[in-house]
Amino acid sequence: MDFSFSPEEESFRTEIRSFLDSHLPNDWNDRDTIGDEGAEDGSLARTITKGLADKKWLAMAWSKENGGLDATHVQQMIYNEETTYARMPGGGGMGVAWVGPALILYGTDEQKEQYLPKITNGDDIWCTLYSEPGAGSDLASLQTRAVRDGDEWIINGSKIWTSGGHYANMGWLAARTDPSAPKHRGISTFVMPMDAPGVSVRPLPNLAGEHGFNEIFFEDVRIPGDSLVGVENRGWYQVATALDFERSGVGAYANGKRSVEKLVSAARDEESLVQQNPTARYELADRWIEVQVGFNVAYRIPFLQSQGIIPNHEASVSKLYGSELSQRIAGTGMHLLGSISQLRPGSPYAKLGGAFAQQYMTAVSSTVAAGTSEVQRNIIAQRGLGLPRG
Fold first, then answer.
1. Is residue 82 part of a domain?
2. What CATH number does the domain containing 165 carry?
């Protein structure tokens, strides 16, 4: 496996950086924290999303037939790395990451015609309706019901930890359609408008005071019969395939690289930080090495895809290592900056804009979101190492 990039790939990386330089505010790199709820950032996100759509970059790895550019897996990875490192607002989100790919694999021609163009041009914003109060890591235990009633489906139940559900206009839903079947075999997937009568959204602010998560309730929600995607009761396997798109990203290491760079810069600018915490120098070195190891882990994913191999346990290795590394980086930041690191964004005395106080609290969830570390280790053990179940 060759970890070097071709001249064409390096040229593409340069093109992405030029796009970001021309679309992001001049002081963007000086902002240590960015609120995604602000009107300015919301407007900026829409502008950038439109610019990406015009260049067909939102879904660049999709085929031209489906609105993409037939970009290689490596090009997609480079795009993800650069835009995450730059903390770019906007983009295709869940619609591009796994809803669109699932529709391409399992949707009807009519569904593709209806939904794919709205994903590639940035018109639709999707949220993922998977987790429930009693079904998170064990997603196959979900109980939200979808019952056929003539030409419609009636949805009842609730979802939790729905990222972006408060501004998404479309939802990608996993619901139980056969309660008598074994739990993995009675689930189906649906597309649904989030403004359908009977859908209600309740905000769930996190420990850091950020509103990203939501609880969604369905009370006799009716959606058309053709909202079903793929074969009825085979949704679990579609969900499992779609989740692989989420777990194969390089974003954790791009974020980690930026955070470690911020800490190294702070240590250079203020020597007393290391003098007060002599071991912090070694921690920073460890974190930097781990970030580089993480990039190698992530770079392997598009290499496998380019060889026609679908990453499974390999993607879980990347997700597991990246999410746990994010917690270690946040802890190193708190240690280096000392007690003042607890000051939140907005305090005039906060170092680095209070970014690490925020990061330390949000990193807690990184080993839970998108599949817990325990689930990832099980996947690695069973599918990667061939070990027996429990």
1. yes
2. 2.40.110.10
- What pLDDT tens digit does each residue of the chain (390 aa) get? 567 889 999 999 999 999 999 999 988 877 765 444 444 467 899 999 999 999 999 999 899 999 999 999 889 899 999 999 999 998 888 999 889 999 999 999 999 999 999 999 999 999 999 999 988 777 889 999 999 999 999 999 999 999 999 999 999 999 999 999 998 899 999 999 999 999 999 999 887 778 889 999 999 999 999 999 999 999 988 877 765 554 557 999 999 999 999 999 999 999 899 888 888 899 999 999 999 999 999 999 888 888 888 788 898 999 999 999 999 999 999 999 988 888 888 888 888 888 898 889 888 888 887 778 998 999 899 999 999 986
Tokens for 385, please give them: 């190492």
Q: Nearest 5°: phi and psi at 175?
A: -140, 155
Q: Which two tokens stand for residue 377?
A: 């280790």
Q: Taking Cα atoms as reference points, which of 241, 255, 381 lies closest to residue 313?
A: 381
Q: Which of 115, 111, 101 is nearest to 240 (CA)?
A: 101
Query: Are 251 and 375 part of one and the same domain?
Result: yes
Q: What domain range includes position 152?
A: 126-234
**CATH for 54:** 1.10.540.10
**Are residues 253 and 213 located together in one domain of the fold?**
no
- How many domains does one find in the chain? 3
Q: What pTM, to 2 d.p., does this model score? A: 0.86
3-class SS shares of the chain: helix, strand, coil, % to 5: 55, 15, 35
Query: Which residues does 168 contact at the CB level (< 8 Å), separation at least 6?
Result: 125, 126, 127, 194
Residue 389 belongs to a domain:
no
| Same domain for 154 and 282 | no
The verdict on 160 and 187 lying in the same domain is yes
Give the contacts of 381 (CB within 8 A, at least 6 positions apart). Answer: 387
Q: Which of 188, 205, 234 is the last residue of a domain?
A: 234
- How far out from the chain centre does Cα 112 lie? 23
Instruction: Give the phi and the psi of residue 313 in degrees, each rounded to 5.
Output: -65, -25
Q: Is residue 97 part of a domain?
A: no
